TrEMBL record:
Protein name as it appears in the record: Rhodopsin domain-containing protein
Lineage, broadest ranks: Eukaryota, Fungi, Dikarya, Ascomycota, Pezizomycotina
Record keywords: Membrane, Transmembrane, Transmembrane helix
PANTHER family: INTEGRAL MEMBRANE PROTEIN, PTH11-LIKE INTEGRAL MEMBRANE PROTEIN (AFU_ORTHOLOGUE AFUA_5G11245)
Topology in membrane: Multi-pass membrane protein
Domain Rhodopsin: 30-286
Database matches in InterPro entries: Rhodopsin_dom_fungi, SAT4-like
Amino acid sequence: MSQAVTAPSPGATIAAGTVFPVVCAILVAARFQAKRYLGSGLLIDDWLTLPALLCTAGMGISLVVGVVYKGLGYPTPQSPDPSNRPLFISPQTVTTRKVEFSMELLQFPALTCTKLSLLFFYRRVFCSPWRAFLRLLFSAMITLCIIWGLGFYFSMAFICGTHFSAYWTSVKELRTHCPHLHTQQTWLAISDSIIDGIIFVIPIPLVFRLQMTISRKLAILVVFLFAAVTVAASITRMVIWLRAIENLKKSYALGGYDNQTVTAGLYWTMFETGLGLIVVCLPPLYVCSRAIWKSHFKNDASRFNHPNIIVQTSSSLADPMGSFVDAISSFQSQSQMVNVGDPEKGVEVPLGRTLHPVWRRQ
């Protein structure tokens, strides 16, 4: 039995389409500027935020356009002749269907790049050459996310075969040429939530295996577990979409569209995508902000004798995130004295049971 889906108002829909891209742009810019300030170099997890940002901005523009042309957030125009409902199409519904199709396609690169950015960041912070299981785990998750993104992207792009316009014409055309649309959307919502849940869980056992006090473990977990917000948004989106799909099946069976139900689904898609990009920028910004703070208020240049390598002392083992920051900020204080011809982006040097990042000048 289908359940009602509460559609957001036109104002709330426009707010989601404008606020999320703006906030995401600010955080991505801050992330790049912080890396530039530290001189630590831009890595793949940084670059992946750019396509995610572009697609998120495109989704926001689509939402706003949908509201402006009264395709989203407004009641669905109905045919005056009930017998003609399967063939009836209005300009507002055409707008709704085109916005939905564009957002469906844009969400896959946005969500995939966001997931990959977080996984590459995890691998850089936690992984070490001699921990084969962790490398296998991260490689498997990265491969899974790439396959997931590409698979669903092309599945949606050709959901109507080569009859692309069937997506935004009459219900009859949609049901004829796009029979697997709702099945695809159902599996998308479910699989997205499962993958987000796995990514959310990954750092928890890794942090608890570190040799430190419980309070410090919890402090570090707070930084990484901002991903819980994304998981919550993903689960909410899944529930909304599953309800919306049931309602849309009922509407299509009666021969009509339901623009407000579609609005609810797209609103929460925007919500999840925007929150995901915001969350993926928080851990690196936390690391960079601590490094910048230390570089301003502490002089660590005399802590290490080697001009090229930054190795954490045993006293820093209690706080690996702090050690990571200390390594960057300490190197930053010495970077003016070093000029490496062909630098590496980063290597790792074993110390005790953990491996700590080593940075060279870019």
